[in-house]
């Protein structure tokens, strides 16, 4: 229930997608304080019970969101967080053996932790979802929309690969309301690297200024939960364990995934440009190498 956990909680309540919102923190007082604070606002969101509980009391829920772990520091990559956060993952996973719902991993490095939460808990791969590059894709659409004074909801562009420094923008598929972005008036090729870099360092720029990123990921995670629980069958960029597509074996990475009531149902193979595919494979190798070195 740090910055990210509390932002996700309030976003979930505003969306009205739960009857019971259960909170947990290593410090029980924090979880209880957050529950009290959120309940005091119950007149202003759709009815829901909010309370602090132990992890063992969450086993009958439809979904559990994991934000536990240390956040990033200025200048630190998401992969630098791994050593500490993998131990947190081991402990929490030991309490989730036998869980039947959807597990959503937000903690960083999200791809590696998604992989290990699935391995540690033995929950089916489609039910262990990392938020992955869903936020990066939202940041990309925001940047493109701002550049052309177009609402980001009309921009269709995606980021795949690692949620981190090796992420890949699928420029060849980017469009505004179906019109190829590269054919858009005022578009210049140099904009691609400029925008991609802004998206890549967005989290660092926020952390430099306020210490953490929390509100956008709160909205992203609440929306992800809403789409799953409503069975909306959307195709989005999220992370899950992959065996087969693109020749990838035994790693978690973000790609275009069919989301359903059952979770991340299918990892879709989409045609990429030669450069995009090369960089996507390079990103997969980086994640794979890190996974191999976890003790």
Class by SSE composition: alpha/beta
Q: How many structural domains are formed by the residues?
A: 2
Straight-line N-to-C gap: 27 Å
The shape, in one word, is globular
Question: Low-confidence parts lasting 5 or more residues at pLDDT below 50?
Answer: none
**Strand arrangement across the biggest beta sheet:** 3-4-5
Question: Key terms for this structure?
Answer:
295 residues; alpha/beta; Rossmann fold; L-2-Hydroxyisocaproate Dehydrogenase, Chain A, domain 2; 2 domains; three-stranded parallel β-sheet; three-stranded antiparallel β-sheet; 9 helices; 13 strands; 40% helix; globular
Topology:
Blueprint lengths: L2 H13 L4 E4 L4 H12 L9 E4 L10 E4 L15 H13 L7 E4 L4 H12 L6 E3 L3 H15 L6 E2 L2 E2 L7 E2 L5 E2 L2 E2 L9 H11 L1 H9 L4 H15 L5 E9 L5 E12 L2 E5 L6 H19 L3
Parallel strand pairs: 1-2, 3-4, 4-5
Antiparallel strand pairs: 6-9, 7-8, 9-10, 11-12, 12-13
Description:
This protein has 295 residues and is an alpha/beta fold. It folds into two domains: 3-130, Rossmann fold (3-Layer(aba) Sandwich), CATH 3.40.50.720; 134-292, L-2-Hydroxyisocaproate Dehydrogenase, Chain A, domain 2 (Alpha-Beta Complex), CATH 3.90.110.10. Helices cover 40% and strands 19% of the residues. The strands form five sheets. A three-stranded parallel β-sheet has the order 3-4-5, covered by helices on one side. A three-stranded antiparallel β-sheet has the order 6-9-10, covered by helices on one side. Helix 2 links the parallel strand 1 (20-23) and strand 2 (49-52). Helix 4 crosses helix 9 (274-292) and helix 5 crosses helix 6.
């Amino acid at each position: 229930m740090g910055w990210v956990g509390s932002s996700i909680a309030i976003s979930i309540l505003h969306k009205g997608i739960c009857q019971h919102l259960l909170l947990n923190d290593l410090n029980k007082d924090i979880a209880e304080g957050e529950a009290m604070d959120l309940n005091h606002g119950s007149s202003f969101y759709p009815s829901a019970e909010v309370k602090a509980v132990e992890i063992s009391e969450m086993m009958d829920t439809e979904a559990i969101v994991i934000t536990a772990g240390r956040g990033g520091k200025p200048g630190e990559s998401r992969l630098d967080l791994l050593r500490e956060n993998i131990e947190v993952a081991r402990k929490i996973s030991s309490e989730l053996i036998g869980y039947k719902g959807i597990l959503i991993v937000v903690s960083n490095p999200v791809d590696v932790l998604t992989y290990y939460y699935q391995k540690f808990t033995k929950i089916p791969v489609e039910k262990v979802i990392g938020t992955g590059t869903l936020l990066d894709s939202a940041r990309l659409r925001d940047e493109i929309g701002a550049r052309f004074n177009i609402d980001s909801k009309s921009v269709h562009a995606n980021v795949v690969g690692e949620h981190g420094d090796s992420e890949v923008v699928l420029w060849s598929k980017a469009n505004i309301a179906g019109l190829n972005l590269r054919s858009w008036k005022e578009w210049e090729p140099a904009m691609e690297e400029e925008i991609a870099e802004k998206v890549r360092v967005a989290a660092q720029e926020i952390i430099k200024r306020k210490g953490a990123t929390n509100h956008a990921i709160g909205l992203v995670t609440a929306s992800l939960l809403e789409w799953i629980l409503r069975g909306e069958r959307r195709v989005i960029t999220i992370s899950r364990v992959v065996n087969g597509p693109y020749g990838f074996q035994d790693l978690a990475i973000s790609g275009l995934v069919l989301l359903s009531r059952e979770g991340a149902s299918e990892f879709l193979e989409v045609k990429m440009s030669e450069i995009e595919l090369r960089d996507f494979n390079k990103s997969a190798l980086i994640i794979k190498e890190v996974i191999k070195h976890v003790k």
